[in-house]
Amino acid sequence: MGENAAVTYNGSSWSSPVDIDPNTLISVSCASSSFCAATDFMGNAVTYTVSAKADQTISVTTHGPASAVSGTSFTVAATAPGGAVVYSSSGVCSNVGAMFTMTSGTGTCTVKYDQPGNAGYNAAPQVVESVKAAVPRFTLTIAKSGTGNGTVTSNAGGISCGATCAVAFDSGTSVTLTATPDGNSTFAGWSGACSGSGSCTVTIDAAKTVTATFSLVAQKKVFCIVPNVKRKPLATAKRRIVAAHCRTGRVRNAKSTTVRKGRVISQRPRAGEKLVRGSKVNLVVSRGQR
Prior knowledge:
By secondary structure, this protein is mostly beta strands. It has one helix and 27 strands. The chain has four domains: 4-50, no CATH class; 59-134, Immunoglobulin-like (Sandwich), CATH 2.60.40; 137-216, Immunoglobulin-like (Sandwich); 223-286, Trypsin Inhibitor V, Chain A (2-Layer Sandwich).
C-alpha cells in the first residue's frame, strides 16, 4: 500500500502535515531532492514528497569603508535568497538598520550581516566586515594683513608662510604660532582664532583661521639740503654735496680774479635750499686769472 504526502526532513528527523507518523520509517531512498520512497515499520511502501531546505549565502552589495571618522555615518547593503538581511554592530560604532555611526576616533567597528533563514532556506553564514576608526582632521588657515610684511611659523605641521597658507591637523592638536616681522615692519597682533601680540596657541577642534597683521615702519623722509661750497676746493665741495644727500651736477670752469684756481666760484641751487633727495648741484670752478 502506498501513499503520497508532503514530508519535511531536516537532516535528523521527519515531519508531516498528514496523520502519519514519519518517525516510524525504517528505510528511505531518494531518487531526487523532491521524492523519496520509504518503508514503514509494517513493511508498507510509502512514497513521500520531501521539502528540503536549501543553503544560502549573503551577498554584500555596498560595503563599509576601510576607515571612517568619529561622528560620521555610512550605509551598507546586502541581499540573500532567504529574505531581508539583518544588520548589527559591535566595537566603536552603533547602527540603526543599515546605517552605521562611528562613536570613537580609535578602535574598530565591526559590521555584521545575518539572514536567519525561512521555510525554504537554512540560516546564512554570518558575514563580518571591519571599519577602522579615524580621528577627524581640520584645516588651520593662516592669513596676513596690514601694510607691512613678515612670516608666520609653527611648532607643528611645518607652517612657514609669508602669505596665506593652510595646513590640516588631527583634531585635538595644539599648534603654537610665531610671527616674525621683516626688517622694515612691526608685528601689530593676531585676530581670528588668536589674539594679542605674542606667540599664539591654537587647539584644533574645528576649521580655524588666524590672521597676522604686520605694519610698515614709517621711514624718515630724507631731503637734499644744499650745502654752501663757495670758495671750497672742488674735491671738498663734491664730498659735502654727497654728505647733504645731493649729487654733483654740471661742473663748468670760468676765469676769476678773486677766487683761487680749482675752487668753487658759484653754485646752483644756492646754499640752504631744501630739495628732493639726490637733486643735482651745479658748480662753476675757477680756472684762475687766465
